[in-house]
Amino acid sequence: MAELFLRRTAGLLLIAAGAALSTVVAARLGAAQKVLVHGAIAFSVMTVIGLWWHRRRVPMWRVWARWAAFPGVACALFQGLRIDVEHNRPVSLLIAAGLVAVCWALSEVVVLVTTRPVTPALIRSKLEIPFPTRGLKARLCVREDRLALDSLASRRKRSRDVATIPWTTLRSIELVEVEQEMTCTAFLHSATTRANASTFDVPPGPALHVIGTARELLIPVTEQIGRTVLAAVQARSAGVELDEQPLTTEDWCSKADVPLTASEDPAQRLRRGELVSTYSTDKRPYHLILLGGFLLLPLYMLTMTTLSLITGSPELQDDWNTAGGLDGEGRLTVAGLGVVAVAFFWAAYAFVFRGFQDFMATQDYLEAVPEPPPPPPKTGTVPGSDKKRKKR
């Protein structure tokens, strides 16, 4: 427990250090205080929410570390370029470029301190552990409840085109020796009933052979990584009951959020291509960001008004009309804004946060079961009878 606390604390401190460093450098280069403060607050709120959401998927912390440093880095680059053009001082641009490199390096160190070395305590925890594959751009991750193979399309899109095997569908995993080059195909959901096939070569050498209910993977790894992954999977999947109930077409349609009525035959509609899932592992509900931004606007206004009073910043007080403190009308306005902020915050939770939770739950299912089961074979018998239908 102490080790995990120290890992997370070190990661959070590095994220805060990157954000603080970028803000200080931008301020020293003469960035506009108003833009810098507003940007730092907005991106800090986004970073805190993102870190909480990915509190167990620590490899994603590198992304939030970059988001936290983005306002300062952007302002520093703008100021560095302006100073270089107007005053012919290229050193300012070099400082800004160096800041980009430092913040990028800090984000990579965040992942290292939270996931390396792989210790027994980390294996027994619920934190996601990433592992490189042998000769592939794909990455193997042992998560809390599943084994995931991501980055099948691109390292820049690690969260898309993911093939997973949850512990409830894991039938076997073993480290094998591939004697000759082979090919492995991972099926990825495509928002239709037919999954996309992602094929990669498996060179000779050690590889993990993973068999699940809905898929089978052969993942090339080094022997050391393979043994570590085996230990992590065995520790985290221990005691999890295998879901022996066969998947039906009706199950897949309902879990993939395909609308059905009681009188419809999903198998026939699937064969005709009329049923298409509204979710895809290559899409994200970006409209929820706009809706959430609108609903959180009163809370942002209340926060900035409070900060202008606490910090005593003349610029902030001028922007939010709080110079000299609040009079009776101002207090009434702030109180009303607080009530509206609470109501809008509840709406953001009900319509944005919970909606995103439902979306991610569907994503997890489609990553594990990318397409519905095949229709039952035609036996030539009449349903409910053992006699074959006569051919005409």
Compact description:
The protein is of the alpha+beta class. It is 52% helix and 14% strand.
SSE topology sketch:
Blueprint: H1 2-28, H2 33-53, H3 61-87, H4 90-115, H5 120-124, E1 129-132, E2 139-142, E3 146-150, E4 163-166, E5 170-178, E6 182-188, E7 196-202, E8 205-212, E9 216-220, H6 223-237, H7 249-255, H8 266-271, H9 287-295, H10 297-311, H11 314-319, H12 328-368
Antiparallel strand pairs: 1-2, 2-3, 3-4, 5-8, 6-7, 8-9
Helix pairs in contact: 1-3, 1-4, 2-3, 3-4, 9-12, 10-12
Task: Describe what this molecule looks like in 3D.
There is one protein chain. The chain is an alpha+beta fold. 52% of the residues lie in helices and 14% in strands. The protein has helices at 2-28, 33-53, 61-87, 90-115, 120-124, 223-237, 249-255, 266-271, 287-295, 297-311, 314-319, 328-368, and strands at 129-132, 139-142, 146-150, 163-166, 170-178, 182-188, 196-202, 205-212, 216-220. The strands form three sheets. It has a four-stranded antiparallel β-sheet. It has a three-stranded antiparallel β-sheet with strand order 5-8-9, covered by helices on one side. It is globular and about 80 Å long. Mean pLDDT is 86; it is low at 382-392.
